[in-house]
Amino acid sequence: MAGQRIPLKTDVYSFGVVLLELLTGRTSWDVTMDPPVLVLWATPLLRKGGVEQWIDPKLGTQYPAAGTLELGRIALQSVHDSPRSRPTMGAVAQLISGFVVGD
């Protein structure tokens, strides 16, 4: 990888992983989880909807459900298998600012 350009969509994927870590309270790799990869664990739960299944349990009920669900959707888009299907970081910023300003 030394001397090679890293594709911009890789940054988007990394952002999605960090966002998932913040939302779930889990690390990107955890051998105590099944599956141990956070993205593989979170993706089916995020697709189903409901925040309660994947939100960090330390938060209890102290989070805005709608905003948290929207952040989960953004994370899911950001970690899409296909780099072409991932949004740009500009689009991610617009999505986040759109619902933050809307609150």
From TrEMBL:
<keyword id="KW-0067">ATP-binding</keyword>
<dbReference type="GO" id="GO:0005524">
    <property type="term" value="F:ATP binding"/>
</dbReference>
<keyword id="KW-0547">Nucleotide-binding</keyword>
<dbReference type="InterPro" id="IPR011009">
    <property type="entry name" value="Kinase-like_dom_sf"/>
</dbReference>
<protein>
    <recommendedName>
        <fullName>Protein kinase domain-containing protein</fullName>
    </recommendedName>
</protein>
